Amino acid sequence: MNPRANVDDCLDLMRKLIEYRQQKALHHQLMKAAERSMLGIDAIVMLYHCAKVSLGDILEIGSYIGGDTIAMAMGVRDSGAEKKIISIERGCRVDHPRVGTKDSFKDLRKNLKRFGFLDQVTLINGRSFDPNTIAMVREISGPRQLGLFVFDADANVRRDINCYSDQFVDRCWMAIDDYLGGANKSARLRMQVDELVSAGRLEPLGFYGVGTWIGRWLK
């Protein structure tokens, strides 16, 4: 990894964030998506950007009620390219003062439909590491076809990277939530990500929102 190039890429991401903030109509749409997400608005903006510029399909693990998915669907729409979005959500009930849900998978479908993106996203109701789920993802998107990988599930991101890394393009964009912050899983997530960075498999590019790690996969 070239340190100078990495610094330039980090600064470029920060500049893009400012540019998106200044595009008032777009930023307003992204804020509407953020109302259906636990991620901070800057992380939502970065997901939009990564989906827009990525070369390949998108795999999201832990869609919850769809705020992140909507932002990425907007990015794909604005890219003008054909990209598949695969979102995996097992479904759960969460008591939360702002984005609580009785059935996250049901609300995910409802929110995608409300924003007009239901037909653009392939939803998988299950666990990301189940053999049936892995087989479905491989059927939809083949080897070296994933250009963006988003993880917002439990504390074991390494497990899911192991499941799907053969489908990542080189320099596949990566977004891993709860790297920083007060979540109980953050320490384990951070350790796994840092180990992959030290091994030369992940390239860090910054932290956005309330603790979302943004970077790239290196073959």
Overall form? globular
Strand order of the largest sheet: 3-2-1-4-5-7-6
Count of helices? Answer: 8
Which residues sit in consecutive blocks of at least 5 with pLDDT less than 50?
none
Helix content: 40-55%
CA radius of gyration is 16 Å
The secondary-structure class comes to alpha/beta
Strand proportion, as a percent range, falls in 15-25%
Main pleated-sheet profile:
7 strands, mixed
The mean pLDDT is 96
Distance between the termini: 11 Å
SSE topology string: HHHEHEHEHEHEHEE
Number of strands: 7
List keywords for this structure.
219 residues, alpha/beta, 8 helices, 7 strands
Fold blueprint:
Blueprint: H1 3-22, H2 24-34, H3 41-53, E1 57-61, H4 67-79, E2 85-88, H5 104-115, E3 121-124, H6 131-140, E4 146-151, H7 157-164, E5 168-176, H8 186-198, E6 202-208, E7 212-217
Parallel strand pairs: 1-2, 1-4, 2-3, 4-5
Antiparallel strand pairs: 5-7, 6-7
Describe this structure in words.
It is a single chain. This protein is globular. By secondary structure, the protein is α/β, with parallel strands linked by helices. The longest helix is centred in the first third of the chain and has 20 residues, at 3-22. The protein contains 8 helices and 7 strands, in the order αααβαβαβαβαβαββ. Helix 4 (67-79) links the parallel strand 1 and strand 2 (85-88). Strands 3-2-1-4-5-7-6 form a 7-stranded mixed sheet, with helices on both faces.
